[in-house]
Design goal:
heterotrimer, A mainly alpha, B alpha/beta, C mainly alpha, A: mainly alpha, 2 strands, elongated, B: alpha/beta, Alpha-Beta Plaits, 4-stranded antiparallel sheet, 13 strands
Chain lengths: ~280, ~300, ~280
């Protein structure tokens, strides 16, 4: 067999290539290709989670409730309407606990894919951006499925603003996920830290930040759990959009700002840890 | 292509690279030979523009890696010491995804991927999973991946470490073809046979410093005698026997498992030994190699 | 004494007794040395993931506080099928105990075993010793069960302190939880032996979620139409929940034997398939 002539190594000076502005998109494209390996998981979890939770919690558990938990501008709302936006937010947060932990450990250690990308013109910051784009897209997909099922269950109040719910889902997911990404990127090895995050951070937040009943139900000594929880802020914001939960405008603004602060702060720290580790 | 002067890299108190100077000319195949931990990989990371230097000057393709990292990396091909192929993707997709990182269009990536699979003798494995490839195939795929952007310099960090002899020869053959086509190669290795096979010119590094520089043949000529006699008397006796051999050959080196006699003529030295009434369990006369150069320069063996 | 090769038992004599009773087809897989694996499990828990081990205790407690007490303020008492009314926390506490037994057993017999099989390469090393694959399987399950028993004891203590145990029979929920966990673990192990990729493992979680939500865990079965009730009653978690609930609430009756029988059958099926599959994988 004769070697095919490869056009390698022109010895004359080549024009200096500019760093690619679309580098993050290339990383995202790579991530999407990887996600195709578990596309059925993504779809199945995307459809199954809302279906089961809306049926079990939204309808089943609701039969036991003696009192109304929440009301919109037009009076009390059914439990499923109250609980659905919070369930949607916890679904995107749960995507984050998977994609911003094991995927990162895999990129640095198990499969070392990040080191391969690092040798190309792509900068560490773009690797972070690419990951965020890909995961945000998966969250958006999950949120849209959730919204579709919510509509099918009649679990929404205000048809005009409910369309923004997926956006809140993605924002909530990133607000929880990006600090987690920053943490995950500092780890050299997984000795159960991710499982610990799952059980000591995600589960308590899922249970104690106003997901199943208003935060005020808890003793006031526990309210801080909600205040520091991206999940609570996202759930509350979702409730405003979904059925017009009554609250002052400044509170809504605070929810948005807190979520943005978590997401942006996590993103910046993650960029720094990625750069420090890869360079 | 690469120009380094007093290049230094420190991690805290530890100096990984301690002021080295070297130059790589276009079309040349340049090697860094040294034991593990000599600072070869750190040097490669600095040249590859993924690690900033602590001191000295470095220019790669006429650019400063500290300020033009992406522009430099766009024109390099890097084969890392540890494979980092994406095992979740198929063989061909690994090449395509990688090409995208250089801003190549999908069509160009696809065409180039097929060309490179042919070059790496992996065309039949195009749709295979990476995990199903043998070690040698993975290595060839990594090299193919490093060529996707038609780099001006191909950098290989320990390209054949961990491969069986046959896979090594297949790989050397592929690299040799690239060399013939005029690709500039920068290779690190701790195998002297690899350095002799691949490198036009090399530097011997130890503890972050350059010990010697030249072509493999010139280095051997300069730092070793023409032939080497290896004698084994058993590990308990070697040291005692060495004392009796004083004066035989140009120089004697005592290793834990054997005695080396450096001499212009191995046969003469061997005769000398038997005349002295010494009967080694095994004896061997061979040509001097880079291993001997390294031993001479550092007093240590390359592979411990 | 004759040549050592004739007399030295492959298996230490004292443990051989039990192994010798097993049919030959099983003896090839089982050297009676599963406890080595339990020891290894404890050692690795001690050095590595103690926080994960610890979390297994806290998870059901978090659920009990959040749902039983928090949501319980809106629910009050729950009326059982026999007309008895109990506080909501007392209703879900036994269910959470059963769920945590299921989760622990399934995690240890599926994800944990799968990861070790395909990534840790642990079993290759172990199997090259005198231990058989069934030692490994039973050892993993036993370790999971012991851990589960510790969690269950802790949780039952919490229930007692909160006044949620309404009968002395609550203490019997400890052996009941062991039985439940053994049932899930043996089937989980059988399923794992057929799995090839992580993606397939995701389906296991997918089956567990609806079981968790619908098996009379958080609300009684009577909210469903008749047909769906029958379907849920065919699933293992419902039997587990009813068994444990019957014991902690003191509804001692023959129906509990049905639940026990269900798990005995589950264990028999699980072990049979695991053994058969391990034979095919390692011996044939």
């Amino acid at each position: 067999m004769s070697a095919p002539s490869l056009s390698t190594s022109p010895t004359t000076a080549a024009p200096v290539a500019a760093p690619h502005r679309r580098a993050a998109l290339y990383v995202a494209e790579h991530q999407f290709r990887s996600m195709l390996n578990y596309k059925w998981t993504v779809v199945m979890v995307g459809v199954g989670t809302p279906l089961f939770y809306l049926l079990g919690i939204g309808l089943g558990l609701a039969t036991l409730l003696d009192a109304d938990l929440a009301s919109g501008p037009g009076g009390p709302v059914p439990y499923v309407v109250f609980v659905a936006p919070a369930l949607l937010a916890s679904a995107t947060v749960s995507v984050a606990t998977e994609e911003f932990t094991y995927t990162v450990m895999s990129g640095f250690k198990w499969r070392r894919v990040f080191w391969g990308i690092n040798a190309t013109p792509v900068e560490p910051g773009s690797i972070v951006s690419g990951l965020v784009i890909a995961v945000a897209a998966r969250m958006a997909f999950g949120s849209l499925l959730y919204l579709a099922l919510m509509l099918a269950f009649g679990a929404v109040g205000d048809l005009w603003t409910v369309w923004l719910l997926p956006l809140v889902g993605v924002l909530g997911g990133l607000a929880f996920g990006l600090p987690l990404l920053a943490y995950a990127s500092t780890l050299k090895d997984d000795n159960g830290q991710f499982a610990a995050v799952q059980r000591f951070v995600f589960t308590p937040l899922f249970l104690f930040s106003g997901t199943f009943y208003p935060l005020e139900t808890l003793p006031s000594a526990l309210h801080w759990i909600g205040w520091i929880s991206p999940l609570w802020h996202a759930s509350e914001l979702g409730r405003v959009l979904s059925y017009g939960a009554v609250k002052p405008a400044w509170v809504t603004a605070v929810h948005v700002l807190v979520l943005l602060a978590f997401a942006i702060g996590g993103w910046l720290i993650a960029r720094r840890t990625f750069t420090r580790r890869l360079r | 292509m690469v120009h380094a002067q007093s290049l230094t890299k420190k991690y805290g108190d530890f100096t990984a690279v301690d002021g080295i100077d070297f130059e790589v000319a276009p079309g040349e195949s340049f090697g860094l030979l040294g034991p593990n931990g000599a600072g070869k990989s750190t040097t490669m990371r600095m040249v590859g523009a993924v690690s900033s230097r602590t001191g000295g000057d470095l220019s790669v393709l006429g650019l400063d890696p500290d300020t033009h990292g992406p522009q430099i990396r766009a024109q390099l091909g890097v084969v890392p010491q540890e494979d980092n192929l994406d095992a979740e993707l198929k063989v061909r997709d690994n090449l395509i995804v990688y090409g995208r990182y250089f801003g190549l269009s999908r069509a160009v990536c696809a065409a180039r991927a097929d060309e490179l699979l042919d070059f790496a003798q992996l065309t039949e494995k195009a749709q295979a999973k990476v995990d199903d490839l043998s070690g040698g195939m993975k290595r060839r795929l990594t090299i193919a991946r490093a060529l996707i952007n038609t780099p001006r310099v191909l950098m290989l960090d320990e390209p054949t470490t961990g491969l069986d002899p046959q896979a090594r020869h297949v790989l050397w053959d592929r690299l040799f073809r690239l060399k013939e086509q005029g690709t500039t190669l920068v290779v690190t290795t701790h195998y002297m046979d690899e350095a002799e096979q691949l490198c036009d010119r090399l530097v011997v590094v130890d503890h972050g410093r350059i010990m010697a520089e030249g072509s493999p043949a010139a280095l051997i000529r300069e730092h070793s005698s023409r032939e080497v006699v290896e004698l084994r008397f058993g590990s308990t006796r070697n040291a005692a026997v060495a004392a009796e051999l004083e004066g035989v050959g140009d120089r004697i080196e005592v290793l834990p498992d054997r005695i080396l006699i450096y001499t212009p003529s191995g046969e003469d030295a061997l005769e000398h030994v038997s005349r002295a009434g010494l009967h080694p369990t095994t004896s061997l006369v061979r040509r001097a190699s880079l291993e001997d150069v390294f031993l001479r320069l550092t007093g240590r063996s390359l592979i411990e | 004494m004759s040549a050592p090769s004739d007399t030295a038992p492959l298996v230490p004599e004292r443990r051989r007794g039990l192994a010798a009773l097993l049919p030959a087809s099983v003896r090839a897989l089982y050297a009676g040395n599963a406890r080595m694996f339990v020891v290894r499990g404890f050692l690795s828990a001690k050095t590595n993931n103690w926080i994960v081990v610890l979390s297994g205790f806290f998870e059901p407690v978090f659920f009990l506080i959040a749902m039983g007490i928090g949501l319980g303020t809106y629910i009050g008492d729950v009326e059982l099928a026999n007309g008895q009314t109990v506080p909501y926390a007392a209703f879900i506490a036994p269910a959470l105990l059963a769920v945590s037994a299921m989760n622990g057993a399934v995690y240890d017999s599926t994800w944990n075993v799968f990861f070790k099989m395909h990534f840790g390469k642990l079993y290759d090393a172990v199997l090259s010793t005198s231990m058989g694959p069934l030692d490994v399987a039973l050892g993993e399950i036993s370790y999971a069960l012991l851990r589960g028993l510790v969690y269950a004891t802790g949780f039952l203590t919490v229930m007692q302190l909160m006044g949620l145990n309404q009968s002395w029979t609550a203490i019997l929920s400890l052996p009941a939880v062991l039985l439940v966990a053994f049932g899930f673990a043996s089937v989980g192990m059988a399923i794992t032996s057929y799995m090839k990729t992580f993606q397939q493992m995701d389906w296991i979680n997918f089956v567990m979620l609806p079981m968790f939500l619908f098996s009379a865990t958080f609300f009684p079965l009577d909210v469903y139409p008749e047909a769906i009730q029958r379907l849920i009653q065919a699933l293992p978690l419902w039997h587990a929940v009813e068994l444990v609930r019957g014991l902690t609430l003191g509804q001692f009756g023959p129906q509990l034997l049905v639940h026990v029988g269900y798990f005995v059958a589950m264990i028999a099926v699980g072990i049979t398939f695991t053994t058969r599959r391990l034979r095919a994988l390692f011996l044939d």
